Amino acid sequence: MDKGPANPEIKEKVLQYLDTVEKAKSKDIAKAIGEEKGAVDLAVKELSMEDKVEYLYITTTFVALKGKVGAPA
Amino acid sequence: MEEERKTPRLDELERGPWPSFVTEIKRAAVKSEAADDLLGLLEKSYEDKVGHWKHGGIVGVKGYGGGVIGRYTDMPEEFPHLREFHTMRLNQPSGWFYTSEALRKICDIWEKHGSGLTNFHGSTGDVILLGTTTSELQPTFDEFSDAGFDLGGSGSDLRSPSCCVGPGRCEFACYDTLDMCFDLTNEYQDELHRPMWPYKFKIKMSGCANDCVAAIARADLSVIGTWRDCIRIDQDEVKAYAAGGLDIQTAVCDKCPTRALHFNARSGELSVDGEDCSRCMHCVNVMTKAIRQGREKGATLLIGAKSTIVKSAFLSWVVVPFMKLESPYTEFKELLSRIWDWWDENGKTRERIGELIYRVGMGEFLRAVGLPPVPQMVFRPRANPYVFWPEDEIVKQEQQAAPPESGQE
Lengths: 73, 409
Known about the structure:
The complex is a heterodimer.
Chain A: H1 8-20, H2 26-33, H3 37-49, E1 53-57, E2 61-65
Antiparallel strand pairs in A: 1-2
Chain B: H1 8-12, H2 21-29, H3 33-48, E1 53-55, E2 57-58, E3 68-69, E4 71-73, E5 86-90, H4 100-113, E6 117-120, E7 127-132, H5 134-146, E8 162-163, H6 177-187, H7 189-193, E9 203-206, H8 215-218, E10 221-227, E11 232-233, H9 235-243, H10 248-253, E12 261-264, E13 269-272, H11 282-286, E14 291-292, E15 297-303, E16 317-323, H12 330-346, H13 353-360, H14 362-369, H15 391-401
Parallel strand pairs in B: 8-9, 9-10
Antiparallel strand pairs in B: 1-4, 3-5, 5-7, 6-7, 10-15, 11-14, 12-13, 15-16
Helix pairs in contact in B: 2-3, 4-5
């Protein structure tokens, strides 16, 4: 199901927000930046393909800036 | 010469006539240092009675948020080849139909990039590839991708949809489980590869109530084949079963959960109260030649099965008693979209949809996704529908419950 391209402004807001936290769920990012959850999901998808963010599994899946969170201690 | 590793506890698991995962790891250890270290670590775990694994962190390759489970040992000095020992999941084909060429290809790629150890299949259904390093993840994925394979789900995403062999091998399939599984897998690539939800979501498709993928106990959304009309009985075949020695009353009628079947031993005829039949498949399984499913086939949708995490284990709960399932599955997908939206909006972190429904109530869920309440949704019949208390019993209870008078213990 093609959802089209992500909004570049939302992508930028996602990156800015992730810079302020260690990691976050997409739902919390959407709430924090005041955007629709679906639009944030799309932005995160594109940002992960651009290698700017990555998904992390720590009891549930989070999103973080690429390389910000290391392997579990 | 390097000293041979001693594994007395693991060796116990090679005894008996059954296949042994220890034997297979030992075979792999001839070629793989990681597999050899794994034997040592497992022996150590049995000795210490504690697992020596950490997991989490990285979960994917570029653009993916699922399909890789980061694993590390907490004893990297002693077992250096397990310092990183990540699991990869490959999305299985519908019904697990492979050619031997495809299986060899998977094993060749995995021996090149990983430990060579596999698990066919994980409980969700994927091919499980056990043990590779962080630097090998992307090259491994690239080579599998070039060979036509894709990663499966992991983390808070749609897990790889799975289905029974369906019409590929089974006459009981009430819909094309293979086609539906393939269709959903392709339709929901984003949901499968990019975790965006409170937690995992599993869709499992069984062609009939025999439920060969155990959907009812495991899937957030179970799709279980059924029929809307009545079973069909061939009386000549019923007589043939009876003549062949089958005790129809004991083996079929007495085991019908709703006692919907009646056998007349004198006439040799079997009859059914169609409105009482719960379509459990028992009679069809026992008297395959005499009893067939109805003609109007589709599936029942059930929601909310899961293993214990936030709440205890749940079985699925009927939400749509009957839905026709034919490509492109529009009605199903529209409902699924509403279910996901509601869960994503209202679910707490790590809360499966069954747990959310448990927390807020089925009524809330039904209103949110636009499903009408119907009798088939009744979770369990009331065991004590009417309780009458005689007046004297109430007085007696009140006297017993009254606080003691002053000065009395």
